[in-house]
Amino acid sequence: MKHASMLVEEIIRIAELENAKELAEELGCHPAIITRIRQGKRPFTPFQAKAIEVMTKGKVSRELIRPDVFL
User: Whose CA is closest to 4, among 68, 66, 71?
Assistant: First the structure.
């Protein structure tokens, strides 16, 4: 899996969002959660992984985000 910070940046870019705060809004979580994910302190939840897959039209798959759950 990609480094967490790079993954978050890729998601933001592909989903055509402005920043991590906008990603948090799209996922219905607090921006601090995205910061912790970026720092590698926590993973995206399976629900968030599915939402990101939809948001990026499959360009970032849930398997890439959470291979421990979806593979």
Answer: 66
DSSP 3-53: -HHHHHHHHHHHTT-SSHHHHHHHHTS-HHHHHHHHTTSSPPPHHHHHHHH
Q: How far apart are CA 46 and CA 68, in angstroms?
A: 10
Q: What is the pTM of this model?
A: 0.92
Tokens at 25, concatenated:
């809004």
The DSSP letter of residue 66 is -
Q: What angle do CA 26, 53, 57 make, to 5 degrees?
A: 95
pLDDT, tens digit (0-9, with 9 covering 90-100), for 29-66:
999 999 999 999 999 999 999 999 999 999 999 999 99
